[in-house]
Amino acid sequence: MKMILTTLMVLYFGGLACAQNIYISKDAQISFFSSAPIENIEANTNQAVSAININTGSIFFKVSVKSFQFEENLMQEHFNSDYLESDKYPYAEFQGKVQPIPPMAKDGSYPVNVNGQLTIHGVTKSYQGPGTIEIKDGQITALSSFKVKLADHNIKIPRLLLKNIAEIVDVKVNAAYQPQKEAGDAKVTRNNS
Q1: CA–CA separation, 187 vs 179, rounded Å?
Q2: In the structure, what pLDDT confidence band is assigned to residue 162 with cuts at 50, 70 and 90?
Q3: Which among 88, 109, 135, 167 is least buried, having the fewest CB atoms inside 10 angstroms?
Q4: What φ, ψ does residue 82 adopt, rounded to 5°?
């Protein structure tokens, strides 16, 4: 998955010339939480990859669906086989913009809005929501949380399990970025590498 980062920046951010404006995260954290009357469901991954262009505010995330870890193996199995069909739809992606673009050379915590397209389970939908960009000693951290309605991504919950699984899931993102040092490092692909 980490090999993906190399061609992504070329394709998504417009070429090697902008490599000095690109910051990358090879171990972004994404978690989701489903609160339901019978059982809460939570999963986490720290294997998402992300890139942000500090001049344009363009941001990209890609995560392997199978990288999400659950407390119970059976939940993880059902998540991958029955709900997200991760063999058929192995990745989730987000492409969007952070606005306004914070002053990246100045330490601080800056509220932003994130707008973009989220693709899960083969279905792409527009999302927007609040986020925070934190800058300290040249390191950029992006934080955001938003809600995903499962039906919007054609994720079906059997009627018998409606009390077990919430129809809306809370998603949290935490990505720490480092500057892209060389154009040779900037080859990220949006293919299934």
Answers
A1: 14
A2: low
A3: 88
A4: -90, -40
Q: What local confidence, expressed as pLDDT, does residue 192 receive?
A: 43
Whether domain 34-182 has CATH 2.40.128.110: the reply is yes
Task: Measure the CA–CA gap between 132 and 127, rounded to whole angstroms.
Answer: 16
Q: Which run of H or E residues covers position 78?
A: helix 73-78
- Judge whether 190 and 12 are in contact, CB under 8 Å: yes
Say which amino acid occupies 137.
D
Distance CA 32, CA 19 (A): 31
Domain map of the chain by residue range? 34-182
Any idea what DSSP says for residue 39?
A: -
Q: What phi and psi, each to the nearest 5 degrees, are found at residue 44?
A: -140, 155
Q: Nearest CA to 70 among 60, 51, 83, 61?
A: 83
Q: Residue 137: which region, alpha, beta or left (left: phi > 0; alpha: psi -120 to 50)?
A: left
d(CA 21, CA 53): 5
Residue type, 26: K
Mean predicted confidence (pLDDT) in 75-82: 88
Closest CA to 11 of 152, 189, 147, 162: 189
Task: Report the pLDDT value the prediction gives residue 124, as an integer from 0 to 100.
Answer: 98
Which range has the worst mean pLDDT, 4-8, 34-38, 89-93?
4-8
| Mean pLDDT across 121-148 | 95
